[in-house]
């Protein structure tokens, strides 16, 4: 069973633009990797992984735009209160740190997988990158469960 778009947005913490961006990149990557495995094209694995790299770059670009807009919007009011400034800084810090951590982990996994498939990477680096991805996903799952639990009707926590 596949996730709906709303479930995908909640579980990944991405917005609709990022979900569409990464889905399109995954589709192109799947096509290129199939062509590479069937011997139709003979490019390196880094070239096959390039749509995923481009999607991560565009994701970072979008993150920087959102962060800049939040910062400008938050400090544009006539007299922002001290509490509002603290909340803005906290939300910006959370937005940037969680997304940068996710992008960094994905980039490390993608690059180490491509290097391993090209024959230049060691299995130890590949296994450690996959373990790091697993730790990141478990941490993300804890945050999602806590968020869903607090938003559930009738929750007393």
Overall mean pLDDT: 82
Q: What radius of gyration results from the CA coordinates?
A: 19 Å
Structural classification:
mainly alpha
The description of the largest β-sheet is:
none
Poorly predicted sequence stretches spanning 5 or more consecutive residues: none
Count of separate DSSP helical elements? 6
> Level of helix content?
over 70%
End-to-end separation in angstroms reads: 31 Å
- Total strand segments: 0
Q: In what range is the share of β-strand residues?
A: under 5%
Encode the helix/strand succession as letters.
HHHHHH
Rough outline: elongated
* Total domains: 1
Q: Would you spell out the secondary-structure blueprint of this structure?
A:
Layout (H helix, E strand, L loop, with lengths): L4 H8 L3 H23 L6 H4 L1 H27 L5 H37 L4 H29 L6
How would you sum up this structure, described in words?
- The model has no long low-confidence stretch (mean pLDDT 82).
- This protein has 157 residues and is mainly α.
- The radius of gyration is 19 Å and the shape is elongated.
- It has helices at residues 5-12, 16-38, 45-48, 50-76, 82-118, 123-151.
- The chain is 82% helix and 0% strand.
- The chain has one domain (5-151).
């Amino acid at each position: 069973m596949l996730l709906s778009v709303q479930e995908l947005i909640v579980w990944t913490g991405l917005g609709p633009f990022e979900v569409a961006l990464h889905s399109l990149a995954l589709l192109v990557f799947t096509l290129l990797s199939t062509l590479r495995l069937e011997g139709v094209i003979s490019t390196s694995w880094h070239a096959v992984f390039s749509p995923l790299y481009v999607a991560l770059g565009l994701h970072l670009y979008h993150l920087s735009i959102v962060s800049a807009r939040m910062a400008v919007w938050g400090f544009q009011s006539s007299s922002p209160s001290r509490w509002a400034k603290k909340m803005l800084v906290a939300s910006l810090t959370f937005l940037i740190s969680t997304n940068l951590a996710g992008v960094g982990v994905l980039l490390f996994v993608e690059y180490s997988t491509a290097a391993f498939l090209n024959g230049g990477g060691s299995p130890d680096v590949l296994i450690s990158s996959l373990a790091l991805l697993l730790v990141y996903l478990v941490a993300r799952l804890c945050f999602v469960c806590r968020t869903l639990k607090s938003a559930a009707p009738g929750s007393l926590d």
